[in-house]
Amino acid sequence: MNFTEIKGLDEAYVLQTYGRNQVAIDHGQGAVLWDTEGKQYIDFTSGIGVCSLGYANEAWAKAIYDQAMKVGHISNLFYTEPYARLASRLAPAAGMAAAFFGNSGAEANEGMIKVARKYSYEKYGEGRATIITLKNSFHGRTITTLKATGQDHFHEFFFPFTEGFRYAEANSMDSLMAAAGDDVCGVMMELIQGEGGVNPLDQDYVRAVAKLCAERDWLLLADEVQTGVGRTGSMFAFQQFGVQPDVVTFAKGIAGGLPFGGFMVNEKCRGVLRAGDHGSTFGGNPMAAAAANVVLDTLTPDFLEDVKRKGQYLRDGIAALGSPYVSGIRGMGLMVGVGIQGMTHRELKDKLMAEGLLCLTAGADTLRLLPPLVISREEIDQGLAVMAKVMGA
Questions:
Q1: Residues of the chain whose pLDDT is less than 50?
Q2: Which of 53, 330, 331, 347 has a CA 20 to 30 Å removed from the CA of 72?
Q3: Are residues 145 and 151 in contact, defined by beta-carbon separation less than 8 angstroms?
Q4: What is the pLDDT of residues 174-189, one digit of tens each?
């Protein structure tokens, strides 16, 4: 089908909940995509940080095919090898004790919230269930994770929301202490606020929060749905902040393009959720877990160091443009935010797309770049060339 036919079916039969770009993607290779009309794009989005190995990765596709030909799904009423092997590799790589597998980032964050509240309830009883999150955060689109999100415009329409959240300003211990109380059981934060504008937290602040959580027996809850699994140049972003969370979530890039997510707990929280406390029909799906194992095969220490180098290369390349539209550049690894002035970030995103570069937006004024982790420097250069054409000095 061509673009017009696909768009017609979408408008006729799909709920119009997305502001889609006026492009229908047909296929890809590495960090390059082609639409149904044959136009080529350099991809700085990777499906919002999901396609960590890019497109048409043969090892990834073969693992999925081989597992599909054995058993595609059997449920968590039985053991299968792929999820067990994945947990045995992922938990030690994060310094955690055990993992739970689900399907998405929002589901992972819901599970993390349940761990925090049950841990506190079993140890201290009722009345200690509030979780402090940060203003400008984003934690998902379920009723509970919308309420956990620290942006007021997400707290509309779907009343009543789940209660038990208070919000503090990022990087302000004074604000965090003002939100504290005897009813608190945890602090939940993204190490880099992704949807809020690609805003890295200050390392000293993160360490101070971790220290406070340890002193008060609050759980330190790290939402690494977007920052985890190599995106920032380490397996998890918290490893570059010098802290160890009690619970950490992951999703997006873990399975390279298949729906997969989950959370991991430390030894203190290993026994909080017991049989019947939590579950997910598709969690630990054998095909998705097989794909995730290929992702972990790829994320060697040398590969992760190269993600850092490529991220710096990309940030340096944008800075070298001397663009009057750039107000600032921030991020870690291949998670890059570019502050935009002189036009809206959405206008710029559309101009770049018209010239063959796919980008994302975040916050009120940020161009967000999340290329596949396997992107080459040549592909980065092609993307920078488009940027120079559209937004150069």
A1: none
A2: 53
A3: no
A4: 999 999 999 999 999 9
Task: State the Cα–Cα distance between residues 133 and 169, nearest whole angstrom.
Answer: 9
Phi/psi of residue 185, nearest 5 degrees: -120, -10
Cβ atoms of 226 and 248 within 8 Å: the answer is no
3-state SS of the chain: helix, strand, coil percent to 5? 40, 20, 40
Phi-psi region of 274 (alpha: psi -120 to 50; beta: other; left: phi over 0): beta
Instruction: Please name which of 135, 196, 192 lies closest in space to residue 166, comparing C-alpha atoms.
Output: 135
Q: 135 near 294, Cβ under 8 Å?
A: no
Output the pLDDT for position 392: 80
CA–CA gap between residue 265 and residue 182 (Å, rounded): 23
- The pTM of this model reads 0.97
Q: Which of 154, 186, 182, 145 is nearest to 168 (CA)?
A: 186
What pLDDT, on a 0 to 100 scale, did the predictor assign at position 324?
Answer: 96
**H helices within the chain, ranges in order?**
3-13, 46-49, 58-68, 81-94, 105-124, 143-148, 173-179, 203-216, 286-298, 301-320, 345-354, 377-391
pLDDT tens, residue by residue, 303-338: 999 999 999 999 999 999 999 999 999 999 999 999
What's phi and psi for 104, nearest 5 deg?
-155, 170
